[in-house]
Amino acid sequence: MPNEIDVLLPLNPRTFYVLLCLAEEDRHGYAISKAIEAITDGAVRLTPGTLYPLIRQLLVDGWIVELPEDAEDPRRRRYRLSAFGKRIAQAEARRLDALVRVARSFHLLPAGSRA
Amino acid sequence: MNALGVLARAALYAYPSDFRAHYADQILADIAHDGAHPAALLFDLLRGGIAMRFEGFLRNASYALRRLRAAPLFVAIVILTFALGIGANVAVFSVLNGVVLRPLPFPNASGLVIVQAHDPRGHTFPAISVTDASDLRTQTHTIAAIAAVSDDQGTLLVGGRPVSLYGLDVMPEYSTILGIKPELGRALEPSDGRPGVHNIVISYQIWQKYFALRPSTLGSTLSLDGQSFRIVGILRRNQTLADPSQGSIGHGDFLKALPETGTARSRGARFLGAVARLSPGVSLANANAEFKLISNRLQRLYPDTDAHWTFSLVSFVGTVLGSAASSLWIIFAAVVGVLLIACANIGNMLAARWSSRDRELAIRRALGASSRAIAGQLFIETGVLAFIGAIIGIVLAFAALHVLSGLMSTALPRASSVRIDAVSLLYAMGAVIIATFLAGLSPLLSLRANDLHSVLKSAGRGGDGSRRHRMRAVLVVLEVALALSLVIVSGLMLRGFVALVHTPLGIRPEGVVVTESVAVPQQYGSPAARATMQRALLRRLRVLPGVEAASLALSYPLGDTRIGGSIDVFGRTYPNGGAPFAWTNDVSPEYFRALGIPLVRGRAFTASDATGSAPVAIVNQAFVARILKGTDSLQARIRLQGPGSAGAWAAIVGVVANERDSLTSAPEPEVYTPAAQASPPYLSSVVYAPRVDVAVAGREVQGAFARTMPLVQPPATYTMPQLVAIATAQARFAAILLGLLALIALLLALSGIFGVVSFSVTQRVREFGVRTALGATARDIVIDVLRRAFVTTATGVALGLVLAAIAARAIASQLGSISPFDPATFATVVVLVFLCTALASLQPAMRATRVQPAEALRYE
Predict the structure, then answer these.
(1) Which residues of chain B make contact with A75, given a CB cutoff of 8 A?
(2) Cβ of A70 under 8 Å from any chain B Cβ?
(3) Which residues of A touch B31 (CB under 8 A)?
(4) DSSP H helical segments within B36-107, as ranges?
(5) Residue ranges of the domains in chain A?
(6) In terms of Cα–Cα distance, which of B733, B793, B756 is closest to B482?
(7) Which is nearest to B276 in space by CA: B134, B105, B99?
(8) How far B379 CA sits from the closest chain A CA (Å)?
(9) Residues B538 and B707 sit within 8 Å (Cβ to Cβ)
């Protein structure tokens, strides 16, 4: 029987990237989009028109939380992964890891390689 | 702020306002940091905003559907009300659109006009002469082209069997004016009218029916009435022709050139219809101003024929539609009224339902849901209901148009172009949006009337009702007002229709069978041949089983052939073309007996009033009163002024009572001459067969025609009630539709009153309990409830009477002999509305009497 987290998977890749970036450290929106660009070598870019609606949805669902005002830039808000969000990100990572292991065992990927 | 910032700020309006408030700064900061291509930025922000709104809408809509499933009866009633309101609107709009709004099927149809001639006595004819057409053509600058047109009928022999074809003889400009582009071959040209040239253009339908669409048809010959015509063109399948003399459009069978010779050339021979096209950029008013000047010039140039005659132009589409346009606009106004009433009703139902959710909503608001979000939820819920209602309504509209199609085809011009098309669906969509807004307005206002504080304060009693109740009462007042005026208008139209149907025709309609007129073929061209044929036909009709009287006639009551002219009375002179006008009819001796028209003085015609005997005439009482004025009728002699020379003087031998030729005009002077002396170019017949089935009699009459004129297709037959039904079809259509709409409006108002009275009784349960405890009787309570309901209704009635008076004035021209302020109708409807109020209040009033004091106080 699937638990409450498994029914939320698989995640939309963009959602997963946002959760990943926030797992590393608290970031504001702009920093999130820059970090995603960095870890995907520029393959995934979140424009403001996509990013902020996504952030709002994650806030409403309680996967991330908004931190109090930032002293250095009062216009920006920083976000932190919630405990619930962290469990979801972990579950998604485990799901992907299991998939990759299957792919290796079927020789779609050499063992220990990067895709 | 730079340009990019301004652009971004504008684009952010695509997002819901709460999102914008929270994230605009961050997004603007990001953009300021990063920069972006303006187009890409605009696209990104708009897409994101629309996606977010759409998701929100879907979430709300699915929430609405889930909530609505919980109250199936309420939902069913609301949807049904929407379905009736929107469905009736779609049906009526589709008729209005097909008949009135859609342009006629000609290129630039708005520039088409009909030429009318006005005689010195002020009669108007849609008719001119060939010479008038060329006079006008050479003088005008406002008309691009003008074509005289004559109806034509010809007999085609198909395998020895005669088939009547109906077409038009036209001047060659006709094709240019209407923008006719043939399917094959060519349109008519000026050379087609030359003597000895016999060319014809046939319709696609004739090509299909009698020539099997063979390409070799072009250039082959077609024999009409024994004369060969060369087929030079074939019209397109959907080609519509305009007949200016009938003011109608339709599918003619053929077009021939109006012969240059053989048609009366005299200026005064005004019997041709004329269609014309305004020059580009010229208005009808300007063209008419010019025609007035031209008329004056022609009066001076040709005083013999044109003295005191004037010409004018009327729009072709206006003539085609006639009174159908205003009739349909009235029905449309009524159906919009029904939708308004439906919306008011639904608004009240929704308000009652949402008020039971006061606490849920107040708490949601306290938890941060904005008023706007709650209003959005309300409108989405209403919109979902309206949308489902509209879909059912459109299905109902299809069914209604199907049921009405038979009646519409006789009642309305262009009925065949009525259909539910994309424009109708667009209208339905607009109706859904407006209905959603109107129906949602009342619950929305009542939501604003409450806040968390007042809701929680009144926790035990289901909300503070007084302000809300006032608003619901206002809506019911408006409902009653609209319904009352609608019922009055439809009552007036119904009375007008009944009066029209019962217009005394001056004849005995029972047992009468008439035949449509047929053109007498050229083989009977000589007076002797014609007289022989007429005698043979009359003899055959007279001996048919059950026929007690039979007559040939040029025209018959409510028929569409009517010929009239100027009359000279012996011994009188009429200067300046002022000779009186009278309708003329050529009839056999038994005409008056067949139609039951009483002979007032003198004698009827006899068999001896024939060619060779002294010319005689019979006139009606209107003729005696208006034209003979004081002269002893039976001493008078009259003659008909011909186009060129006048006929012989005829002695008046009898006076008959007035018969009416149309339901809408009063009897006019009429002269009857013996058919045997006149040899009319068209023949119809009137037989009186009171003890025979009319269908059988009709077939027998057709048989008599077929045996007498084997080369003519036997004419259609009608009974007088059928002719009355055809003549009153438009009024019947309007009366039926308005009657249905009035019924719906009344039912809606009834349920609206029930709703508001019932709600108010619920609100006042405690009060009734207390009063019962203090000794009030059931009678006191019922009277109190009824009194309040009657006050509401009376306010609505007062407002409705004003509305009805305005509406009645606007439709006065449609009512015939009925006064627009007919007191009987007004009074009946007011009483009806109060009866409905009593009916609707009865159940809530009884409920109020059953309130137990103990139960009422439990709420405290």
Answers:
(1) 25-26, 28-29
(2) no
(3) 48
(4) 38-69, 72-96
(5) 6-105
(6) B793
(7) B134
(8) 24
(9) no
Q: In this structure, are residues B681 and B481 in contact, taking their beta carbons and an 8 Å threshold?
A: no
Are the CB atoms for B533 and B566 separated by under 8 Å? no
**Which residues of chain A are within 8 Å of residue B30 when distances are taken between CB atoms?**
29-30, 33, 48
List, for residues B603-653, the tens digit of each pLDDT value: 999 989 988 889 999 999 999 999 998 788 888 899 887 654 557 899 999
Give residue for tokens 């979000």.
B373
For chains A and B, count residue pairs whose Cβ atoms are closer than 8 Å: 51
- Partner B, chain A 21-50, Cβ-Cβ below 8 Å: 28-30, 33, 47-50
Domain covering A6-105, topology: Arc Repressor Mutant, subunit A (1.10.10)
Nearest chain B CA: its distance from A30 CA (Å): 6
Hey, what are B274's tokens? Answer: 């004329």
Helices within B689-813 (DSSP H only):
694-708, 720-727, 729-763, 765-773, 778-810
* Facing residue for A49 by CB, picked from B28, B34, B44: B44
pLDDT digits (tens, 9 = 90+) for B215-259: 999 999 998 888 889 999 999 998 999 999 888 888 899 999 987
Q: Closest CB to A48: pick one of B44, B51, B52.
A: B44
Residue with tokens 């199936």: B72
Q: Are B627 and B668 in contact (CB under 8 A)?
A: no
Contacts with B29 from chain A: Cβ below 8 Å: 30, 73, 75-76
| Residue to test with chain B: of A75, A76, A77, most B Cβ within 10 A | A75
Gap between the Cα atoms of B479 and B472, Å rounded: 10
Tokens of B772: 């019962």
Q: CB-based contacts of B236: which residues, under 8 Å, 6+ apart?
A: B181, B182, B183, B204
Tell whether ipTM is more than 0.90: no
Interatomic CA distance for residues B399 and B88, integer angstroms: 11
Distance of alpha carbon B395 from alpha carbon B44, whole angstroms: 41
**In contact, A93 and A100? CB cutoff 8 Å:** no
- Extract the tokens encoding A4: 């409450």
